[in-house]
Every structure is written in structure tokens, then in C-alpha cells.
Specification:
Elements (H helix, E strand, L loop, with lengths): L6 E2 L10 E6 L5 H10 L3 E6 L4 H7 L3 E4 L25 E4 L1 H9 L3 E17 L12 E14 L4 E6 L7 E4 L4 E4 L11 H12 L8 H16 L3 E6 L3 H14 L3 E7 L7 H12 L3 E6 L1 H8 L5 H21 L4 E5 L4 H6 L27 E3 L7 H10 L4 H4 L19 H20 L8 E15 L2 E14 L7 E2 L4 H14 L3 E6 L13
Parallel strand pairs: 1-15, 2-3, 2-4, 4-5, 5-10, 11-12, 11-14, 12-13, 14-15, 17-19
Antiparallel strand pairs: 6-7, 6-8, 8-9, 9-10, 16-17, 17-18
The structure holds xanthosine-5'-monophosphate (XMP).
Length: 527
């Protein structure tokens, strides 16, 4: 365990020899573009907008997509790309800002338009192009721009228009450079996937052969080569990311994998048992369960400040994990379930202009001082891909579709002081709510659903007796990215069942409230 920590890039270069790069100009949709490309079975990576032509050559992509972005190309500080990009002979598709940039670089003019367009528009094709194969002459598209290309050089042909945007799609006459003012990657452009598909298959000549199964097989081979006969440690939390990481590693190295589950006493009902059963009965992995409830609860005694709770839990976790890991012989690697959005959001790899804006709680983990080399086999995948991979690896739906759960666990849902009794109330109420949502068939339609125990007592009446008991809040949200979220419009009868059952079955609760705040301005968790 004395080797310095080094981040091992489990790059998919061998996995995906037909790849497309998305140059990120700060678009909120860069990740969505990448997902749409992968949905066409073409591997795709997001890279910085200022990547050089030479670096691009090293990636050997089949094509490039220039993303949208919030800037205006005529501003002095606007992000630009290496002009040599256009000399590479590679197919290039500029989307929104990307189109404006390409036109500007190749002799066109971009201006702020009098009619800013945000929302649906009717696109009318005016010239045929392979990009629009199979697209009717008039089609619905989604616009979101203040600037537009007002003039193109003679080198370009205008392909389409809308009522307020005369140049809504272009193609260069000589170079394989295309531009779309609208967003083909959003679902509000119903035929957007076909347009992207045309770019990938017809223009770039991709075959669409990238498959998750191939990814898994090649990653397994890669892990075996990298690990040799050393041992790999993987922390298990019960969440989908760590479970899929462990399942993939188990497939790669079987008995050389040691999993550590730290029972901090802050897990959901039956969570520990489910993890133990899955990883011992199904995968027969070497599983170390650290029973540390007493340690965590003692450390949290009297603490009500959310930041301090997180700090103490983080410290206790590291102590427990490190001490267990030290007992494991020949351990050289530490596996973590870092996903592609974490990599982008934390700026660890692609760090485009949008990257630094978002810093997520889920990034972080164990400190470098532990002295392991990191293996992050999921760092090229999106969450939905990880879920599909989990199912392919044989994990049960219950684990694969489990809602995200914060590292500090129930501690940040138990507002005020954390005691064994309060945690028990919370755990029971939470289990009832989640089970009722599952029974109503709404679990997968909800991104996160949980109960929060409030530090509030209120008056009630049960039977003939007055009560003065706890209030709990039910929090259910819908979101794709967890950066913004809306509260779930659950049917009243489901809410009623949850409330009745919690009040009847959980001793110590006499009131259930439903949280109807969106994020922002509220957050998903209460602490
Ligand atoms: P918020 O509450 O910021 O949560 O809207 C966004 C997402 O992050 C999760 N979350 C955390 N995850 N450690 C984690 O690992 C944390 O401290 C933490 N706080 C929030 C939250 O559950 C939601 O999915």
C-alpha cells in the first residue's frame, strides 16, 4: 500500500475505435449530445473546446460536433476552436453556437437577431442534403438562441429556414462542415435523432457497432491486464454505481476482489442485508462488513449542524475503511464508481467551460493518502448505461434501479440531533413511503423519494388521547440530472396511503407533510 495514488485512465480507446468528439463550448446540452450519439451505437466523448487539431488527430475520431454555448462569437472573450480543425478533412457538425462559430470561421457573419427564438419552430428545408435524408420538408425543431448567422460566404449553401431565422441549417460546398441553428439533441426536436444519425452514419461513415456488452468485455480484459495478481478493494454502499463497479470487477478478477461495506448505522431499512445477500450469495465475493454504528453515532452525538455532520461522517468513514483495507493483504488498487458526468462535472477530464460551474457532492471519496492506484471502470459511462450494464452483469432490478442515496445517509434526513431512536422512526417511515410508491408502480417515474424526520413536534389526537409527536416530510422529485428538480405530482390516493400508514404504523409520528418545493431554490435533500 505504499505506492503513490495515480488515477488510472480506463480509457476506451480500444473499446471504441469509431468515435466522435463533442467539443464543449459551455452548452447545457453537451452531455445530452454525447448520449444521443451513443444511442446510435457510436462511442462519443466530450472534450474541451480549445483542444488542438493535433490532439484531435491523436484521438482519431470519425467526426466532430461543436456544441452550443452561452457566448456570442463576436465577443472578444468568446470561446473559439483551433482554426486548423477545419483543415483536418473531418466531418464537422456545428450546433447553435457551434454553427455560428463554424460560419464565422469560414467567412460568414453572425449578429444578434431582432427576434430571439426560444422554443418550438417550424423548420423548412430549402436545399437537399444528406444530413436531412428522410426528413420531411417541414418539421418541428427546438430553437434556443439570441444570435444567428445572417450571412454566409459563397462557400456555404443554406439548407433550411424558419419564419424568423433565414439561415437555420448550412453545409459547406467543399468541406464536410454542417451547421444547425436548432437543437437536434433535445426531445422537442422529434426527428433530431434521425438528423444526428444521418451525420454519424452517412456523413461520418460510422457503422454504429459500439455496444455496452463489448464495452464490458473489453473493460474486463483491461482490468485483468492492469491488475495482474494484485488485490482490488471496492467500497460498497448499496447504491447502483458501487454495485455495478463491484460486479464488473468480480467478473474480471473474481477472488482477487475484496469489497468493504461500512455499516455506519445510517443506512436505509434492509439495505445492509440486501448488499450482503447479493454479494455473498450471488457473487460469492470476499465481503468485509465493518460494523461501526456505535462509532458513528457516538461521534454524531449532540451534533445538529449539517456541515459538521457531513464532516464527522466523512472522517469516520475514512477511518473505518482505511483500517479494514489495511488488513487486506496484497491490496494495490482501489475501485471507485465514478461516472462520466462526475468526471465532466468535477473538471477532472474534459473540463470545458461548463465544467467548473457544477461541483457535485457525489464526487470526492477517499483521500489520496491511502496510497492506492485508482480503478474507475465506469468513468466513460452515463447513469442509464451503468444501469443497463448492471442488468447485463446479473444484478437484480432492485439494486440497479435504486434511487440515489447520499453518502452521509439518513444523517442528513434526520434533521436536528441524530439518535438511534430518531433514526429508527425515520427508517420505518421511509420504508413505508418507498414501498407504497413502488406498489403504485411509480418508483421508476420518480428520481428520488424519501422521508425526512423534522425536528418539530406538533399536537395531534389519536383515539381519544391527545398526542405531541414528530412531523415528517415526504420528498419526491423528478429530475434527469439532479442539478434541477421538480416535486413529483404523486396521485392524492398514493399520498393518502403513505400518510395513513406512517401515522398508524410508526410510533412517534402524528403528522406527514408533502414537500412541494422545486430545486432551485430548494435542494433535493433538506440538509
Ligand atoms: P441536493 O440536495 O444538493 O442533492 O439537491 C443533489 C443530489 O446529490 C445527493 N446528495 C449527496 N450525495 N453526499 C452524496 O454522496 C452528500 O453529502 C449529498 N448531498 C446530496 C442527493 O441525494 C441528490 O441525489
Amino acid at each position: 500500500m505504499d505506492s503513490p495514488v495515480s488515477r488510472t485512465e480506463t480509457s476506451s480507446s480500444s473499446v471504441a475505435n469509431q468515435r466522435v468528439l463533442v467539443l464543449d463550448f459551455g452548452s447545457q446540452y453537451a452531455q445530452l449530445i454525447a448520449r444521443r450519439v451513443r444511442e446510435q451505437h457510436v462511442f462519443c466523448e466530450i472534450v474541451r473546446h480549445d483542444i488542438t487539431a493535433e490532439q484531435i488527430r491523436q484521438h482519431a475520431p470519425r467526426g466532430l460536433i461543436l456544441s452550443g454555448g452561452p457566448s456570442s462569437v463576436y465577443e472578444p472573450k468568446a470561446p473559439r476552436c483551433d482554426p486548423k480543425l477545419f483543415e483536418l478533412g473531418l466531418p464537422i457538425l456545428g450546433i447553435c453556437y457551434g454553427m455560428q462559430l463554424a460560419c464565422d470561421a469560414l467567412g460568414g457573419r453572425v449578429d444578434n437577431c431582432p427576434n430571439r427564438e426560444y422554443g418550438p419552430a417550424k423548420l423548412q428545408l430549402v436545399n437537399h442534403s444528406d444530413l436531412f435524408d428522410g426528413i420531411p420538408e417541414t418539421t418541428d425543431v427546438w430553437m434556443s438562441h439570441g444570435d444567428q448567422v445572417t450571412r454566409v460566404s459563397d462557400d456555404f449553401t443554406a439548407l433550411a429556414r424558419t419564419s424568423t431565422c433565414p439561415i437555420a441549417a448550412v453545409k459547406h460546398r467543399e468541406l464536410p462542415v454542417y451547421g444547425l441553428q436548432f437543437h437536434p439533441e433535445v426531445t422537442h426536436t422529434p426527428l433530431g435523432s434521425l438528423i444526428l444519425r444521418n451525420f454519424l452514419m452517412v456523413v461520418c461513415g460510422c457503422e454504429g457497432t459500439w455496444r455496452l456488452g463489448d464495452f464490458a468485455n473489453e473493460t474486463v480484459q483491461q482490468i485483468r491486464r492492469q491488475v495482474g495478481d494484485a488485490r482490488v478493494i471496492c467500497g460498497l454502499s448499496g447504491g447502483v454505481d458501487s454495485s455495478v463497479t463491484a460486479a464488473l470487477l468480480y467478473q474480471a478478477i473474481g477472488a482477487q476482489l475484496s469489497c468493504i461495506l461500512v455499516d455506519n448505522g445510517l443506512l436505509r431499512k434492509d439495505e445492509k442485508a440486501a448488499v450482503i445477500s447479493e454479494f455473498t450469495n450471488h457473487f460469492h465475493a470476499d465481503l468485509h462488513v465493518v460494523t461501526a454504528e456505535d462509532k458513528f453515532l457516538a461521534d454524531l452525538e449532540g451534533i445538529t449542524d449539517p456541515t459538521e455532520k457531513r464532516r464527522r461522517i466523512g472522517r469516520c468513514f475514512i477511518e473505518c475503511f482505511a483500517s479494514e483495507a489495511q488488513e487486506i493483504q496484497n491490496a494495490r488498487f482501489l475501485a471507485q464508481g465514478t461516472l462520466y458526468p462526475d468526471v465532466i462535472e468535477s473538471g477532472a477530464a474534459a473540463d470545458g467551460p461548463a465544467a467548473t460551474i457544477k461541483l457535485h457532492h457525489n464526487v470526492g471519496g477517499l483521500p489520496d493518502e491511502l496510497g492506492f492506484e485508482l480503478i474507475e471502470p465506469l468513468r466513460d459511462l452515463f447513469k442509464d448505461e451503468v444501469r443497463r450494464l448492471g442488468l447485463e452483469l446479473g444484478l437484480p432490478e432492485d439494486i440497479v434501479w435504486r434511487h440515489p442515496f447520499p453518502g452521509p445517509g439518513l444523517a442528513v434526513r434526520c434533521l436536528g440531533e441524530i439518535t438511534r431512536d430518531r433514526l429508527e422512526v425515520l427508517r420505518e417511515a421511509d420504508a413505508i413511503a418507498v414501498n407504497e410508491i413502488k406498489a403504485a408502480g411509480l418508483y421508476r417515474d420518480t428520481a428520488q423519494a424519501f422521508v425526512v424526520l423534522l425536528p418539530v413536534q406538533s399536537v395531534g389526537v389519536m383515539g381519544d388521547s391527545p398526542t405531541y409527536d414528530n412531523a415528517v416530510a415526504l420528498r419526491c422529485v423528478n429530475t434527469d440530472d439532479f442539478m434541477t428538480a421538480d416535486w413529483s405530482r404523486l396521485p392524492y390516493d398514493v399520498l393518502a396511503r403513505i400518510s395513513t400508514r406512517i401515522i398508524n404504523e410508526v410510533k412517534g409520528v402524528n403528522r406527514v407533510c408533502y414537500d412541494i418545493s422545486s430545486k432551485p431554490p430548494a435542494t433535493i435533500e433538506w440538509e
